[in-house]
Amino acid sequence: MTTWEYATIPLLTHATKQILDQWGADGWELVQVVPGPAGSESLVAYLKRPRS
Questions:
Q1: What pTM was estimated for this model as a whole?
Q2: Which domain of life does this protein belong to (predicted)?
């Protein structure tokens, strides 16, 4: 059975692609993006990767 580790990261709207590309290069898979607590101007990404 696969076990997962999770990360929650804030996304800057002007650098979303670069941020997600970097986390993806480190083996993280994007699960979901939701509005952040500051409203529609901020986003929060939820990521997962298999535990090693």
A1: 0.85
A2: Bacteria
